[in-house]
Prior knowledge:
This protein is α/β, with parallel strands linked by helices. The protein folds into 2 domains: 4-205; 219-319, Immunoglobulin-like (Sandwich). 19% of the residues lie in helices and 36% in strands. It is built from 2 helices and 27 strands. The strands form 3 sheets. The chain has a 17-stranded mixed beta sheet that branches. Strands 18, 19, 20, 23 and 24 form a 5-stranded antiparallel beta sheet that branches. Strands 21, 22, 25, 26 and 27 form a 5-stranded antiparallel beta sheet that branches. Strand 19 and strand 20 (235-243) form a beta hairpin. The longest helix is centred in the C-terminal third of the chain and has 71 residues, at 330-400. The N and C termini lie far apart (197 Å). The model is unreliable at 9-35 (pLDDT under 50).
Amino acid sequence: MNSVSIALLDESELATSIEQTSGSLRMWSAGPNGMDRLVIPSTASLGRREAMIVIRSSLEMRQLDVLIEVSSPSFVLLSAVNAVVTLKQGSIVGTPSSSRIHTDDTSDMCRWESGVMQLVNSSSSISEMSFRQLSMGAFLIKSGSLVIDTSEFLSNSPHFSSFPSVCRNIHCSDDGSVEVRSLSGGDGTDESVSSWIASSDCTLSSPIINLDSPFFVPSVRRDLSTCTLDKETDTYHVEIHGSTLIPCGLYFEVVGESESGEPKSTKIELIPSIATSFNESFISLDLASSIVSNLSSSSNEVRGRLIHGKDVATEDLFTFPIRKAWSPGLGTMAWLIPVIVGVVVFLMLVVLIIVCVVCRRQKKEDEKVSEEEEEECTEKKKTQKTSQIHLFSNKWTNRQRPTHRLI
Length: 407
């Protein structure tokens, strides 16, 4: 026998009818516009219940149209444990986005533990269903399976202020599995390539969605992204422009090659705490020049790009300006040779002038010494001649002097 527990709403607010026959459940509310829809008002509370609908058996729900006005992330519409659940031809719509509270808290942006449909060790399938504006998330799957056919997920955003495009469609973990066979629109299609499926130890399969990056697919603007080298701080300033730049497994990769041509790279996880600015359309950060120089060689360029999902790389955003050792090329030699020749000629002229000056000074000194020697020689000759005259005079005097003899 099926085990289904339904939380009845206050009948003074809603005219609610529940019909359960042979394993099928149909819920509706007779509204003023004639539409059959179950409305869960913002005043509704689960109390001690785990969900509005608790299933412990096999159950099929058709034409289940629910409008959830509750914005609490702890609200659960359906909880299934060890059950088989089938949803067909219906919609589950949450609080309109205009009435949601925007937040800057991104601590649970990449992994969350909420969802209006929670399946534990249960098998489920949905067909022709629509899940929209569910800020708490659509599905939370643990050790269970979900098959999606001709359905859509749209605008299930928790509304982070800096990352408004982030959505919570499916969170699958603990050896669960998700198979997306077809989509009728919304996320995961060509118009919105990001599927917003968070996977942790979960098997994903689909012929239509990007399984290499099932959570989000970033888009980059190469024409706006730049990298400049600050020589004073010896750092690179990187600016990345694009859309859906979400800090959930997003990396900036610096790619180079060794001298032998083998690729080398360094990956830096992009999280708001390491960036000077970070939102889903713009990221700026500073990198130490050593990160780039360690990947550069004389024969290659160093490039920057983003990595997301299962090592999916975007196109190269830019080439890093490298500060290399100076080496003249042919263009440089054309003006360098005349400069060198001019410098050599100038130095030769300086040396020649110095030699000439030294030679002139030496010549003057030699001439001065020669004059002094000549004067000294002349003086000696004069002195010698004078001595000879005196000697001759003395001799002559002695000859003229009379001789006196003693008697």
